[in-house]
Design goal:
There is one protein chain. By secondary structure, the chain is mostly beta strands. The chain folds into 2 domains: 2-81, 2-Layer Sandwich (Glycoprotein, Type 4 Pilin); 83-168, RNA polymerase II/Efflux pump adaptor protein, barrel-sandwich hybrid domain (OB fold (Dihydrolipoamide Acetyltransferase, E2P), Beta Barrel), CATH 2.40.50. It is built from 1 helix and 16 strands. It has an 8-stranded antiparallel beta barrel. A 4-stranded antiparallel beta sheet has the order 9-16-14-11, with no helix packed on it. The radius of gyration is 19 Å and the shape is elongated. The relative contact order is 0.13.
Length: 169
């Protein structure tokens, strides 16, 4: 399995190379790491790498692709970009579903969460709305900075493909 992890301004390509029991071999930007991992609690992991032990606490963030990871008195906000996320992003760009000022829903689904209100200032990459479709949740983000002018959907609404969700100026 291969995916990207975004931590702040850094993006790392992650690939699971091998998993046998607690042993995990991963490639991070093509550098191989061999890890001995143990789940010690709900979202709490003990990881041994090169003779050094790390205790990691993982908490789900605003969606199933955002996490807050705590380790060694530091907190990291992480976004996982997997094949589904890349597909949706490519589909949105290819079909013009994010025209910069208008965010359209590319497929039928249900609005799970709307994160903004009319008049809110938004930054590029900020999550605006989450849609559930085909048992998967997809985040729709602002492609540029702007002000929310109109919200055409609300939580629990059923939406169709091509339906306008948010207008920005």
């Amino acid at each position: 399995m291969e995916f990207e992890v975004i931590i702040g301004d850094r993006t790392a390509n992650i690939e699971f190379v091998e998993k046998i029991g607690n042993y995990l071999k991963i490639a991070v930007d093509e550098k191989i790491y061999e890890l001995d991992t143990v789940t010690t609690g709900n979202g709490v992991y003990s990881i041994l790498s090169n003779g050094k032990s790390y205790d990691i606490d993982v908490v789900q963030g605003q969606s199933n692709k955002h996490f807050i990871v705590n380790s060694d008195m530091s907190e990291y906000k992480i976004e996982v970009v997997d094949a589904e996320s890349r597909y949706i992003k490519a589909m949105n760009k290819a079909k013009g579903f994010d025209e910069g000022n208008i965010i359209y829903c590319p497929m039928p689904g249900k609005i799970v969460k709307v994160f903004v209100n009319v008049g809110d200032a938004v930054e590029p990459g900020q999550t605006l709305v989450i849609v559930s479709a085909m048992k998967m949740e997809s985040e729709f983000k602002a492609s540029k900075a702007g002000i929310v002018k109109e919200i055409a959907v609300k939580e629990e609404d059923t939406v169709s493909g091509g339906q306008k969700m948010i207008v920005m100026e």
